[in-house]
Specification:
Structural class: alpha/beta
Number of helices: 9
Mean pLDDT: 90
Helix content: 25-40%
Length: about 300
């Protein structure tokens, strides 16, 4: 059942463990009968998008419930000599410039291996096959460091036919700088390093990929207050910067609706309250609570239309 003018596009924002909220919202909307003709996502949003393409949203709750930090975060420091530029949002004084330069260089180091992410995805999608369960266009979004632009791979109803495998594309979209190593891709004879664009902030992702859609739904994991999220604790600076970048992306993505010539009606769903969860807090108990809050908010939004 669709209450919306078709075609309907779905944009799924990133957010790491906060994406458990998005999983709950998406699962509930699918349960209520909502269907999408095109899906795009970055970071955890790309993984939730894959679940939709393969009609696996009903499995998401169980995945989050069983999640433990060591299943995702395996300490394995590395360095990647890539021209990574982060978004500078502070005043351009001397100390800010020095701090910004330090951040850019530190972001070339990574703390964790991406092998556990590959293991989870390969295990989850092992029997899914090359064809999606739904006839749908799926756009997996990452960031090409050398180009300083979003890198968008379109999967047209199946996982094959691209210069990057489906799982590699998903992992690249989740490769948070400082956290996970980049994924390499060769495109037209040139090699690029792909990372999660959700915390880069250089080039804003927009809704133009949904040209022709009459309705677009954006499911974010950020709240407006995240634009001024305070830092604190061992990973406080990372958490604060990631939250601000994710919130900024959500804001810019929503504003980009004016670029879509088909003039769709655009809806934005985001958490109405603090989730009590950090971006890298892959704790099953907390993620399950966020998942339930996502279900509740999606049901409330859907029934209010």
């Amino acid at each position: 059942m669709n209450k919306f003018k078709e075609p309907v596009g779905l944009f799924l924002c990133g957010g790491g463990a906060l994406g458990s909220w998005q999983s709950g919202a998406l699962s509930k909307l699918v349960e209520l009968g909502m269907r999408f003709n095109a899906v795009a996502g970055f970071s955890i949003g790309a993984l939730n998008g894959a679940a939709y393409c393969y009609n696996k949203t009903a499995e998401l709750k169980n995945i989050w419930q069983k999640l433990k930090p060591d299943r995702i975060l395996s300490f394995s420091p590395g360095y990647h000599n890539i021209p990574l530029d982060l978004y500078q949002h502070h005043k351009p004084d001397f100390l800010s410039r020095v701090g910004f330069l330090l951040q850019n260089n530190l972001a070339r180091f990574t703390l964790f291996s991406n092998a556990p992410v590959y293991d989870v995805l390969n295990g989850w999608l092992a029997k899914a096959g090359s064809d999606f369960s739904r006839n749908i266009n799926f756009y997996v979004i990452s960031h090409a460091v050398e180009k300083k632009l979003p890198y968008i791979i379109k999967f047209d109803g199946k996982t094959g036919g691209q210069n990057l495998s489906f799982v590699d594309a998903l992992v690249a979209s989740c490769s948070i700088p400082l956290i996970f190593p980049p994924v390499e891709v060769t495109d037209r004879g040139l090699t690029y390093h792909l990372v999660d664009g959700g915390v880069i902030g250089i080039a804003t992702i927009n809704l133009s990929i949904f040209e022709g859609c009459r309705t677009i739904l954006i499911i974010s994991n950020s709240r407006d207050s995240d634009l001024v999220f305070p830092s604190g604790g061992p990973f406080g600076h990372f958490e604060s910067k990631a939250r601000r970048m994710l919130a900024m992306h959500t804001q810019k993505i929503y504003e980009s609706r004016v670029l879509v010539r088909s003039e769709p009606q655009v809806h934005l769903i985001k958490p109405p309250e603090d989730l009590g969860l950090k971006v890298l807090e892959f704790d099953g108990v907390k993620c399950l609570r966020a998942f339930s809050l996502g279900e509740e908010e999606a049901a409330r939004w859907f029934n209010s239309l």
